[in-house]
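Hey everyone, long-time lurker, first post.

I ran two proteins through the pipeline my lab uses and got sequence/structure pairs for each. Pasting them in order. The first:
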Amino acid sequence: MGIQADSPWALLLLAPLLVYIWRMARHTPRLQGTRKLAVIATRALILLLLVALIAGVAPYRTLEQRNVVFLADRSASMKDQDAVGEWIAEAWRNKSEGDYGGILSAGLHAVVDRALSEKPLPNERQYEFRTELNDQFTDLSKGLQLGSALLREKGGGRIVLLSDGSENAGDALRGARLLKDAGIAVDVVELASALERDAAIDELQVPTALKQGETFSFQLNIQSTFTGEAEIRLFEDDRPVTTASVHLEAGENRFALQGIAKDSGFHRFRAELFAAGDEQSANNEAFAFSRVSGPPIVLIVEGVPGSSGNIEAALSASLIGHETISPEQLSVELAAYAAYDSIILHNVPATRIAEKPMEWLAKAVGDYGVGLVMLGGEDSYGLGGYFKTPVERALPVYMDLQGRKQIPSLGLVLVIDRSGSMADGKLELAKEAAMRTVELLRDVDTVGVVAFDSTPWWVVEPTPLTNRDEVLQKIQGIQAEGGTEIYMALDAGFKGLLEIDAQRKHMILLTDGQSSTSMNYKTITDAMNENLMTLSTVAVGEGSDQALLQRLANDGKGRYYFTRDQSTLPAIFSRETVLMSRTYIVDGTIAPSVGDAGNWSALFDSGVPRLQAYVATTPKEMAEVALWSPDGDPLLARWTYGAGRSVAWTSDMIGKWAPEWVQWNRFPEALTEWVKWTFPQFDGSPYRISAAMDGGSGKLIVETTGDQYETGSVSGLAAALEEEEGEAAAKRLMPVAPGRYEAQLGEMEPGAYLTQIGSLSAAEGGSAIREGTTAGFVIPYSPEYRIGNQEGSELLAQIASVTGGRKLSVEEAEEAFRFEPVKLKVPYDWSRELLVIALLLWLIDIALRRLSLPWARIAAAVALPFHSLRRTASPNPNARQRADSIGRIKQRTAEKSKFYGQESKHEPPASPKTATTTRSCNAAASVTSPNRTKSGADAVNRQPARAFNEPPSQRTPKRQDAVANEKKDRKPSSGGKPQEDAAQAATINRLLAAKNKTKR
């Protein structure tokens, strides 16, 4: 036993309580003696009880008891429920008398199967569960929460969890942390859930968007616990498609079955698995859906006419339509690109693609979902001048070689014509080309810029690129004016190169006109050759001196470029810079290694052909690299760019760099898979649809690709499921985040579902979809039937570790109740009793203060039994002496009373004189001495209480005796009237008797 206080701080109220009692004792003049003490004690006791109630003071007793709640996982994954019941019964038989046990069942929800009790089980061999629950999901957290509530009612204990740990709803680990805070440990018993012979279709994958006539693969992932033969059956809209016999190995099995998209529209696909001896049929189905649109068409843009035969043959074999054009035929209208499902750039240099087509290519991929495939060659990637172009932004690789240290240093001088003929945008594009070249160079490279008209001048003196921004700012300040003098500008550039210390030195000359003088340029080109310098020239437009510029490029051992489209100047400069500053072509015998190939992994199961060369690039951060070179360069990469997809193949397709690839028997299939991967993944739908299971209920998730919310007659977004037996009622989609909506679908059978997503029309009562978009989603079978969940054992171990519990084996049922009992404080709630006592004391307090009762006699009567008990318990040796004294006092009192009583009886009649004298004295006292009357009253008040308690018949004679004695002592008065004096004396006696009676 003990005393505890829930709120000890409230005991501080005792300090002001003591002050209050002290002031009450000092400042209560109305109450005196025992009555005052009783009031103070009662008031103090009331306040003390109230403080105890506020502080939660209560007695408690300490108990030592073992309370165990058995939490049985009864989900579908627990195949042997009898083993669970036997384990519980065995543990129950080994509990001690006084121990309590309870049983809970957990599935999607948790229920109490048997409340905490010390009684034995009806069946001591096996406990038979009596409750029903949803066994399609496992939510252990709800069971732990319910078990905690039961144990708290008994003051604590332990939970024994019997499960396989295959949780698929709730968060058991979070629930375990809450139990730790409550001081409740969880012991775990791991029970096997896997069947000896179980095969399941884990996943069926089909492209969500297909083209009519397109061949595709049914990708199946099958898990099995045994080795044996099986049969796979595929259905399209409940129509058989194909059947295949397969051999299953224990573990994971992957299969790919071919199909052809024949009819347009949405289609549901179902796969069924039949294996001999399979003990579980609920996991033998999987579902998928796809939308088939019109036949696909691919645009091939080839840099070398007639070089795309291998590509065309591969596409034709897969029934994919195609068109082949040259780069110059690319449309300047964006709408023209949306007509294709994918565009292939086959060894096309950027210098042959105009500015607008370059922009539309990137926009068609990012905004309209058109696919893009770049195939390598000597004029592609960095060699083709794609650095800092819109096409580079859409591809999964960078054109420059980032992080390469073996690249030789470069000294570059740009000689740019700034004559008046370079106006009308030519000079602006030339400056853009120069700035892009500066960005392409490294900090260790040196650059100089000469602008010329009739005379040359250095815009940027040859300097290392330590301050790149300053160089770009100076180039931006070039203005067009003056004539054209090429020789002097070329000579200035040559002299500037002589001062540069670099491993490679190169000059680029750009002009759109003809020199005003005829000079011997051979002397400059010969001097450049002697100093290992090279010269490339760029002629812009028909008015340029093409013959001179071509001769200079040939003599300078560089390249000559002619362009009518000034928008290609940045690409030309980039290409030229790349060719001079870096070694982009990597050659030799190259053995690719497989990386993140995704669904392309099956293409390389039998090996990957070798290469002879490729163009080096740098993969972007979010790109998936399917094939790597030994040097860490990407050979095959893909990624998603905006709404579309793009693929980069850095070797060629004509057999010069990849002869083994074009001869590979899977080459047509591989190329077709790359191209089809880039096909649009949507049909312009403004919604992205997905589904998930949320605690046993299906949840539809809709994400908008733009601002789809409308006002007016539209009340919001909704979804209507299209089922075989008809269209279900529309379900309103609730916004949960910007652009994200959800709807609860309730319990749904596994399958592929189609739905209409759109706005509810208020004109039709708010129940019809207006302008809906058809989409699909899949509800898989319950996760309870999945094979190979290896996380269950780890979860159970974490639960035991977090709560401080034990991990018991199947053979240790007797250990369930073998733990140190917890000493629990069980408080007794006496607040009601204290309130009743306080109320009674309050009533007593009121009575003591307000009622005029003989409190002294009451107190004496109350104390008399205690005095008697005390005298009996402990006799006083002076008791006899005190008794004798009291007896003598009583005897004297009796003698005195007797004496006065006898004197009154024999008193002679008063003489007239005496009466007159008495009357005179009384009158004088009453008239001249008011204080005397008061003293007389005080004298009367000071008489013993015993006198007041006597009846008037006993008191009056005594007063008469006193008066008679007084008359006897006085001398008789002469001339009085005896009868009158006697009457006055009698009157006075009656008044005194009445006064005494009133005071009593």
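...and the second, right after it:
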Amino acid sequence: MASSAASSSPSSLPQKRTVESILEHLRSGPPSSPTSSPTRAIASQSQSHSHSQSKKKARKAKVPDYLTTSSQAAGPSSAPLKKRVLSTSTRLYVKRVKIDREKAEEIRKLAASLGAVTTDLEHANVIVTDSWSQPRAKAGLRPQLYQEQAHVVHSSWLEDTAEQGIYLGIDKYRVLPAPTSSDAFADSSKFSRGDGDTSIELATTDEEKTDSATDGESDLSHSLQTSPEMRLPLRGLWFHILPAKLDKAGVETIKARLLALGADIVPQENADAIISQAATAARVKPFLKEKEQPKVPLLQARWLDEVETRQAWVDPGDRYVVGFPEQIKLTWDKIKQLSEQNRTPPSGSLVAQRVLTAAAPDPATVETGSGAAAAEALGPPDADEDEEEPPALWSREGSEAGSPERSVAEEQADEGGESLDDYAYKNSFFACERPSPLRCINQELVDQLLILQKQRELVGEKRSALSYERALSSIKAYREDLSKNPVAAASIRNVGPKISSLIKQFYQQGNIAEVQQIRSDSALRVMMDFMELYGIGPTTARELYNQGCRNVEDVIQVGRSYGTKLDVRECMKILPDLRQKIPRAEVESIATTVMNKANELLPGCLHTVCGGFRRGKPASGDVDIVISHASHDPGTVCRKLIEALKSEKLVTHVIGLSNMTDSDDHSHTRHNVAELVFKAKATKTNPAPIHRRLDLIFCRREVYGACIVGWTGSTMFERDIRRWAQKKLNWKFHNYGITDRETGELIETPQEIDVFRELGLDWIPPQFRNCDA
């Protein structure tokens, strides 16, 4: 867990790449102990397990589910479920202060009867105690538990929740302040650095850099400093890292992050400031040479997150280590003074300029296009300044999910095109009958219900998750403002009494109480990170968490996600790229490149870019392209196109190739799916292209329409169109065609409109099929 905390991701892509390069450089020295980090330990266990399997078939050990099953360590609590007021989002531990074991057991049984999970201390996100005294509540608890992980509340919260029959907010029942863990469902793009950021950047002039570095180092520093996305805000400062709560890999990661920001790493006695993963004096003191009162500021490692996000100096504020009331504070004047001194780092230091130079990739080995494209990528930045160019596709701001780019539906409405009002509202049980925009009038409520749905999904409560998913989908299509009349929600299809009561709570109190607790659940935050990876769904994410994985590196090391297809080192190399959102302009550019090559090989290819892009999302996780040819088999088109893209080094990795068909159907439904990693050639407007996920779907012309509908989504729209086909017509709908369940006859759908016509549904354009939250 220490490694996970230590390696929180920097906000900018250049920063991430630099940290990775520095880590690789630092680790290229003497080999580390094989047990020096959790990820290496997991890898070692995995290799040992593989070796033992070659001798005999290993029995799969049953891993306890800490998220859904009450722990025996918490006591023998079991009680019949009275009414599900709480849920598995409440993992509760009872801390006794004045009460005896019998009374504590009564509290556990009450919690279980309300639907909560009673668990051990280490896995709890709510600690219930019988005392309002803060010192007594803290006694025997690790500070990290109540500072970062669990809400500590009085037992009267459970009693009042049971009495009122609804999940009550815990703020007025708090014994200790709320934990400071970040929002598990926060949109990271809200914290990205914008053009309006006025934070002061600690910087020196190019002349000063030249005086203190070799020519090569100066060139590198200049290129990094003048980059619009990456700067050196800590240049000239000396830091020391304490190993408290950190393993060797964790210390290496913080070193790399500091060096990437321009700071030098020095011995403790020479440091301008000390960085610690631990946040309290009790944890820090054993590692300090000055035991009583340190002579330099002690900063929590979380402060680095803010510096990386802003790419500029950030006042530490409350990010100092707690428990040293008289410690020196870092002021802007002090920082400026230190950065302007021409100091020689002491022996044994890691000097940022030298490390950055050594870790920088050799320009000769950088993947660029050939000929003119390569010359443009490596050419001077001011060439052809007068030429008008489109915005760079690779800019970080444009890649974020919260991009200011408007949805397709909004743009079309402004231009006099289709608007939501052109399509009648239907209060239907089926999402495929309800036009739904990308953002709706009741979006804040939908977003809160989504968090409840995701939590149920992550812990394996499929029926409950589906109930929330159907309810929020119906609300998404509703066109009246529920804040003016919350009771109207009860008349919306798929919205039952329980969700109606939550809607009432939302509009009365401004939030849903349970949602506020879920947001701070560190376990859910970890699993949400896992689900960003290819092939990781809720069930696998939960299994990985219960097995001890706490970051994406752990997942790759145990051979899940891309780790099943690629070498671990290769996975870690491309993973930061693949987790970046793809802006619309770049999706179009990738599609143009792919289809130009397809039509060059086999003229007459028909294609549609599907997924969230087609529904109007400003950014996508991958690029989905459905391709068909009138006279060539899908397999032939697939094979020739992928070979061509690989030969031109546009496809760098093939993650998966599948020949998909329904075993009950004939060959006319067969289609091929290629899961690829795409990397564009470097150009003047995109000199540093990154890896992108690309899914190519090849189908026959007679099922092209069904394939487009299936791959356009959204999930709930596709699920309900499948349900509609079965219930209304006894047909089977899949994204590879529609067939009659009784006869097996193919219902031809060469165009998308044919799907709606054959199923007896009114046409809904793609931008109004956003039936998920």
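Reply from user beta_strand_b:
Welcome! Quick read of the second one: Residues 38-55 form the longest helix (18 residues). The longest strand covers residues 651-660.
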